[in-house]
């Protein structure tokens, strides 16, 4: 086991690009980590993008 | 997906599905979707409307590139030997686009009409429709295409896009294989000559297939297409006699394709076979086809069971034979002829005799007079080989005057052998099975002569392969490479597919077709063809009709993309796969979901309310599109339900979203909607959620009905829904509604369970992540973290908080590798443009046809060139594309441009990208302006091209006039102090400080008490049983020992100043006179909360009245054995007029203590008097357990709270029982009050740190949903109960999150602020303070010492309010200076030149 083998990766994989996955990715990227955001559908946004409004402010979800 | 390796060093394996659209090229213009013929239910709108197979998930989707849904190849296309895009042409036909359908068919097959009549259609055999009712009539559909072009009188001739080539190819034989090879080679640019032995082209199609099946004119016309493409067809030329390989070589042919067919018959091998009256079937058909006089008797026997035999029999009948008997070896079901042909023959009164083989001919006067047959016991042996066994004991004789033998075909090899061409053992041509190359390298062979008798479509397929080989041969390419493709198909789920019967084709009646060769089948007319076409189930989703490829001007579509397997090297993994709404279909018997269209799930209803939804936000009943007057919500569908769905947990969000949906629905309906929510408990436990519930009930008039649903029945008259339910008093009631909304819960999808299994991550019994209350986001596999609804059911703010927290934990693990994988964008040094005259470049965008289809783009470009300051103009198909960016950079440098105007779309979406392009070639990013000639012009004025062009000129003129006045600007750069200040040393504060330390950042932890730990020191166990005190001790020890954390106990904040990245806080420690000054870049507020001290229910007056915390202490010390009865009262100090919100944790405190009592002393009676039991999420299990243990729950109303009296033998509690409808009195040894939560010290800290709190004293987050741990001031973060009441595990997560958000700041050395800031001109300012009063962010300040107004650029938000209100106009907003705006107005009003 050389030093290289123990070297840490500076990247993170985030699985799922709903509101949680997107937020986690943004925070990681803003903190100096490379992010692979893996999503099975063609666009990010998850279930939240299907919501019309959000409680308790009735703000638009989009 | 799979993951190998260790934390810090994982290898993740990813399967990436193809998108079939190049994301770097797609401009999201949507032209592709307009031409796509395939519609499918739109998942985004919960299947309530349709989308195309090529689609964008939703209008605002990111990435904006379209994608194609494919489910593999459709069975029809996979099965068709020629692999015609059958689903594609069928879809186009369904859309009425016959020309496109025809063109698509002809990409792969030259004979839509021919094969539309004679194909054995293996595609129909695999058609998925057959599993529902009958297969799609694919053959009849492309026959219609053939009829269509024939009727039009104009045949579609494929365009030859390849350059014309000098090489010549000879094709021997003009049957389907030869003609198809020619057709394909012509498309490649070759010169092709077809040599035909007979007088007319077509091979077996001309001389084997009778005209009643395939009319000659249709055959001739479809072959003529190949001539029109340039093929030279030479008839009457016999290969081996008139021409040879040598002569062809001499004539300069580069390759030869032998497709000579099987034009000879096979003999029976019975004596006297050559006598008069015995003829070969192929000869008979050929003679008939040529119109030769064929000698036929009255009694005809046909020998053979294949298609040729049937054709022979039917032809003989038509030519006047009185009786035709077809005799074959095979049993009826074994006959090789196609079933529909056999049926047709029987209709033509042909007698079929099965299981007999010929034995001998009877002669009379040298001519056949009869034939004797013997019984055939079996045709094939046990190995399936042709090996007939006869029984000579069973014989039968047939009297006849003609026998036609049609038992097989053979090749006429005269003149072939002699040329050294290889012959196979069965007597055909020998060639390689894949490449069709014969041993003579430039000679290829195919068709029936190569593989034996087959159908036309097989010959077409073979001709295509031959063309590929010949092309490769001529170009010296590998003949074999990449030709091993196997065609696999998939089928859609056909469950619930409605039956649509196949449209039968009209045929000539047997008596009408008797004695003539008129075509039997009439085919479809247009109406029928379309009706049949829409029966297609779109198995492959995308039909591969390639219309999108043609429509896409950006050339972004690539149907050849394949899935990719990728390996990613990552240090940590965050699982945020989410939960999905529960599908209530299994409960449809009870709620009529999917049985009555007016029963919707909450997400379906949500889509109905959305302006982007199926009804564009118009609330109507699906059954009749009428606006509903009464809507009911049924709660807990798929949650809190052990019997029907198995999800015993509470989904935590449904009460709130139902309230929201009811409110929005009322708003849509204009107020006269009766909205009723049927519930068990309303669980509005989140921060400020109770006020939302109050508003819905008291102000919006939403009815809340506590009920148990019994059943739903449909009113057949109007499809209304009659709800039968038991109300709170147990009474059964009926009420009718127009619509029902099922408030479905959340569940982890099956795919996630598989993923978890593959990753080795354990799940709990509810399928959420298995984790410990003190590390809720840490999965059982080290290095993998979870967040969001996969962790447990929760709302958006909690999900967002968890996401930041999980990001933080993932970062803690690999902090040493921070910044090692990220890339920094290199920006070249800025070009100094001072003193230069404006040199404006204008780039006009066509946006495909989006702009160019309306606005005269070349004219606009010319016009732009005339504007003052403009030195360069250009127009681009898509200005936003990657290659255009490179082009713009080149032009900036080439022409020395110092201002850039892009006339295209919205700056909202595209300006940042263009500004980066400027920066990348040294131009200041603010020297850029956009004219929105799409959204604000071509889209809205699509029907008036002239005016739209005029408006585009105005917009460009305005943009140019502003551009010449733009100045380079530079945002202020501020350094970041890398230390954090954490205020509050409880569980949240300690966790935050520890996370920061793990990420490498120092912090000062300020605690007002002498000891770390906060509220955690007053609690014993979590409801799950985790030891809180041990945990707090461990945390405190870690914090104290950590070198990166400075703990200041007994500390008080006395002074504060500064802004993000540069704060200064004065802290007085232990009452010292001189406060310490701490410099720090961020603040984390974790000041916590405590227990409300009740004024109610004799608290403080009688020592038998305790709070839940005190009860916890009492149970810890003495247990419960001495207690006969304990009563608990919920919502003490919460949900009242003074403190309207719910304290979230008291229900679980009560249940926790109740369970502890029952465990310790099962006989002690426990009563919990409650209003709504808010055991949200997985806490519901403990509520269920408490009921099982005999804890008695009694519901009371807010306006009728329990009455409490002290007596000698206990506390007497009187409460109204809702079931009995009378007051009951309970004697209690202890009355435990579930006292609410109160923030501690927030007012003082808030004042000192200039932070806002809500009415109840909890700190306010920057945004309730999206920034739940950020505060309004930049660089300040919030966690723990200082934000609102929460459980210890939730406080830990929030601390992780606050630390993670702080790290996004601390990990940067400096912050660059936007350059768009307000500036005061102090020389002309009269200090009227208007700006100070007007700024919504309170930024402008009057500096008394310097006597001037100052606007700190670090705090200014650039909104421009001050610049507008300043009466002396001494405030300017950079990039929006007065002249930079007024010039636009002036040039607009001045008009064009």
TrEMBL record, chain A:
Keywords: Iron, Iron-sulfur, Metal-binding, Oxidoreductase. Its EC number is 1.8.98.1. GO terms for molecular function: CoB--CoM heterodisulfide reductase activity; iron-sulfur cluster binding; metal ion binding. Pfam families: FAD_oxidored. It comes from the Bacteria. InterPro entries: HdrA-like (IPR039650). This is Heterodisulfide reductase subunit A. It comes from Desulfoprunum benzoelyticum.
């Amino acid at each position: 086991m050389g030093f290289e083998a123990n070297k840490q990766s500076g990247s993170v994989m985030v699985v799922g690009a709903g509101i949680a996955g997107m937020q986690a990715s943004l925070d990681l990227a803003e903190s100096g980590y490379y992010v692979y955001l893996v999503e099975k559908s063609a666009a990010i946004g998850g279930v939240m993008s299907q919501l019309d409004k959000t409680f308790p402010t009735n703000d638009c979800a989009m | 997906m799979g993951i190998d390796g260790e934390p810090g060093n994982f290898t993740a394996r990813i399967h990436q599905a193809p998108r079939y659209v190049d994301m770097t090229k797609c401009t999201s213009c949507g032209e592709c979707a307009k031409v796509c013929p395939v519609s499918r239910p739109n998942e985004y709108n919960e299947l309530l409307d349709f989308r195309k197979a090529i689609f964008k998930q939703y209008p605002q989707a990111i990435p904006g590139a379209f994608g194609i849904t494919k489910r593999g190849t459709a069975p029809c296309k996979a099965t068709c030997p020629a692999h015609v895009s059958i689903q594609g042409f069928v879809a186009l036909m369904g859309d009425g686009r016959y020309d496109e359908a025809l063109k698509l068919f002809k990409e792969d097959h030259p004979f839509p009409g021919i094969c539309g009549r004679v194909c054995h259609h293996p595609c129909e055999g695999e058609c998925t429709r057959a599993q529902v009712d009958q297969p799609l009539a694919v053959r009849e559909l492309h026959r219609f295409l053939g009829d269509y072009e024939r009727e039009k009188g104009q045949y579609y001739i494929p365009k030859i896009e390849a350059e014309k080539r000098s090489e010549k190819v000879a094709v021997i034989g003009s049957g389907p294989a030869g003609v198809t090879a020619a057709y394909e080679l012509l498309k490649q640019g070759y010169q092709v000559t077809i040599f035909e032995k007979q007088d007319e082209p077509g091979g077996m199609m001309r001389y084997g297939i009778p005209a009643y099946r395939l009319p000659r004119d249709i055959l001739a016309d479809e072959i003529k297409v190949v001539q029109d493409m340039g093929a030279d067809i030479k008839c009457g030329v016999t290969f081996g006699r008139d021409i040879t390989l040598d002569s062809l070589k001499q004539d300069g042919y580069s390759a030869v394709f032998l497709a000579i067919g099987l034009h000879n018959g096979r003999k029976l091998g019975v004596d006297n076979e050559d006598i008069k009256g015995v003829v070969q079937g192929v000869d008979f058909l050929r003679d008939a086809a040529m119109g030769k006089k064929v000698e036929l008797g009255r009694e005809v026997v046909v020998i053979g069971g294949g298609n040729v035999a049937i054709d022979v029999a039917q032809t003989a009948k038509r030519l006047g034979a009185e009786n035709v008997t077809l005799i074959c070896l095979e049993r009826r079901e074994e006959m090789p002829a196609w079933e529909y042909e056999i049926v047709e023959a029987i209709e033509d009164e042909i007698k079929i005799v099965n299981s007999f083989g010929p034995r001998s001919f009877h002669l009379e006067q040298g001519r056949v007079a009869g034939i004797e047959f013997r019984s055939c016991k079996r045709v094939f042996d046990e190995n399936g080989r042709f090996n007939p066994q006869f029984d000579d004991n069973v014989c039968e004789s047939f009297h006849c005057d003609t026998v036609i033998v049609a038992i097989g075909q053979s090749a006429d090899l005269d003149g072939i052998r002699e040329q050294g061409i290889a012959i196979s053992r069965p007597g055909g041509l020998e060639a390689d099975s894949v490449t069709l190359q014969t041993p003579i390298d430039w000679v290829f062979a195919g068709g029936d002569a190569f593989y034996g008798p087959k159908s036309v479509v097989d010959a077409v397929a073979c001709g295509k392969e031959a063309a590929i080989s010949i092309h490769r041969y001529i170009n010296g390419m590998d003949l074999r490479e990449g030709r091993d493709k196997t065609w696999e198909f998939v089928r859609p789920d056909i469950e619930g597919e409605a039956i649509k019967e196949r449209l039968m084709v009209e045929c000539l009646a047997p008596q009408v077709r008797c004695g003539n060769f008129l075509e039997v089948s009439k085919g479809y007319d247009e109406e029928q063809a379309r009706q049949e076409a829409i029966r297609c189930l779109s198995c492959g989703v995308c039909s591969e009709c390639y219309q999108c490829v043609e429509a896409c001007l950006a050339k972004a579509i690539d149907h050849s993309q394949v899935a990719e397997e990728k390996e990613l090297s990552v240090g940590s993994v965050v699982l945020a796969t989410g939960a999905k709404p529960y599908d209530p279909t299994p409960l449809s018997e009870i709620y009529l979901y999917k049985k009555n269209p007016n029963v919707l799930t909450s997400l379906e209803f949500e889509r109905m309310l959305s302006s982007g939804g199926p009804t564009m936000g118009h609330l109507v009943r699906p059954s009749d599109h009428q606006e509903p007057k009464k809507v009911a919500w049924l709660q807990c569908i798929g949650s809190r339900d052990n019997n029907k769905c198995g999800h015993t947990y509470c989904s935590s969000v449904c009460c709130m979203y139902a309230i929201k949906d009811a409110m929005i629905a009322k708003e849509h309906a204009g107020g006269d909607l009766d909205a009723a929510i049927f519930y068990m408990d309303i669980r509005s436990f989140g921060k400020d959620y109770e006020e939302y519930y109050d508003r819905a009930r008291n102000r919006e008039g939403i009815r809340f009905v506590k009920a148990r649903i019994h059943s739903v029945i449909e009113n057949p008259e109007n499809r209304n829904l009659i709800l039968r339910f038991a109300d709170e008093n147990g009474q059964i009631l009926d009420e009718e509604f127009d619509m029902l909304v099922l408030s479905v819960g959340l569940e982890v999808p099956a795919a996630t369970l598989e993923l978890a299994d593959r990753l080795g991550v354990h799940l709990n019994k509810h399928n959420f992540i298995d984790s410990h209350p003190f590390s809720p986001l840490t999965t059982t596999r080290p290095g993998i973290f979870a967040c969001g609804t996969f962790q447990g059911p929760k709302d958006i703010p909690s999900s967002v908080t968890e996401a930041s927290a999980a990001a933080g934990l993932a970062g803690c693990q690999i902090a040493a590798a921070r910044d090692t994988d990220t890339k920094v964008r290199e920006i070249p040094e800025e070009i100094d443009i001072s003193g230069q005259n404006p040199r404006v470049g204008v780039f006009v965008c066509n946006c495909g046809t989006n702009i160019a289809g309306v606005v005269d783009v070349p004219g606009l470009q010319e016009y732009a060139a005339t504007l003052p300051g403009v030195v360069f103009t250009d127009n681009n198909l898509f200005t936003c594309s990657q290659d255009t960016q490179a082009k713009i950079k080149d032009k900036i440098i080439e022409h020395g441009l110092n201002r850039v105007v892009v006339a295209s779309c919205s700056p909202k979406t595209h300006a940042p990208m263009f500004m980066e392009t400027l920066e990348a070639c040294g131009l200041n990013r603010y020297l850029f302006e956009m004219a929105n000639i799409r959204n604000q012009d071509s889209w809205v004025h699509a029907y008036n091209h002239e005016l739209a062009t005029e408006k585009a000129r105005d917009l460009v003129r305005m943009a140019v006039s502003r551009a010449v006045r733009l100045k380079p600007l530079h945002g202020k750069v501020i350094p970041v102090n890398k230390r954090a200040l954490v205020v509050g040393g409880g569980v949240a504060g300690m966790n935050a400080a520890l996370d920061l330390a793990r990420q490498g950042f120092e912090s000062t932890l300020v605690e007002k008490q002498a000891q770390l730990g906060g509220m955690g020191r007053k609690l014993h166990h979590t409801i799950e049983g985790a030891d809180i005190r041990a945990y707090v001790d461990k945390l405190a020890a870690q914090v104290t020992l950590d070198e990166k954390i400075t703990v200041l106990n007994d500390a008080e904040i006395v002074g504060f100043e500064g802004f993000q990245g540069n704060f200064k806080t004065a802290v007085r420690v232990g009452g010292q006179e001189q406060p310490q000054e701490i410099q720090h870049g961020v603040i984390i507020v974790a000041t916590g909360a405590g227990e409300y001290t009740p004024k109610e229910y004799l608290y403080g007056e009688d020592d038998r009245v305790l709070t839940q915390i005190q009860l916890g202490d009492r149970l810890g010390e003495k247990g419960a054995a001495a207690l006969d009865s304990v009563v608990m009262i919920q919502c003490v100090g919460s949900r009242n007029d003074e403190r309207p919100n719910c304290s979230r944790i008291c229900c679980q405190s009560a249940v926790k203590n109740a369970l502890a009592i029952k465990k310790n002393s099962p006989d002690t009676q426990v009563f919990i008097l409650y209003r709504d039991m808010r055991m949200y999420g997985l806490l519901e299990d403990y509520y269920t357990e408490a009921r099982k243990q005999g804890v008695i729950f009694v519901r009371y109303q807010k306006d009728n709270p329990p009455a409490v009296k002290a007596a000698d033998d206990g506390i007497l509690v009187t409460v109204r029982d809702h079931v009995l409808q009378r007051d009951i009195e309970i004697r209690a040894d202890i009355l435990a009050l579930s006292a609410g939560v109160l923030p501690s010290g927030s007012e003082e800290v808030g004042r000192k740190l200039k932070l806002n709190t809500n009415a109840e004293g909890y700190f306010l987050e920057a945004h309730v949903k999206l920034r739940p741990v950020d505060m309004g001031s930049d660089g300040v973060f919030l966690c723990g109960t200082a934000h609102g009441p929460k459980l210890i595990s939730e406080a830990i997560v929030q601390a992780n999150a606050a630390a993670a958000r702080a790290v996004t700041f601390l990990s940067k050395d400096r912050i660059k602020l936007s350059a768009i800031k307000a500036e005061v001109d102090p020389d002309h300012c009269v200090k009227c303070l208007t700006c100070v009063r007007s700024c919504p962010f309170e930024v402008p300040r009057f500096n008394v010492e310097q006597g001037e107004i100052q606007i700190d650029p670090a705090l200014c938000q650039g909104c421009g309010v001050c610049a507008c209100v300043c009466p002396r106009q001494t405030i300017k907003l950079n990039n929006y200076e007065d002249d930079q705006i007024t010039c636009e107005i002036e040039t607009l009003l001045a008009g064009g030149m």
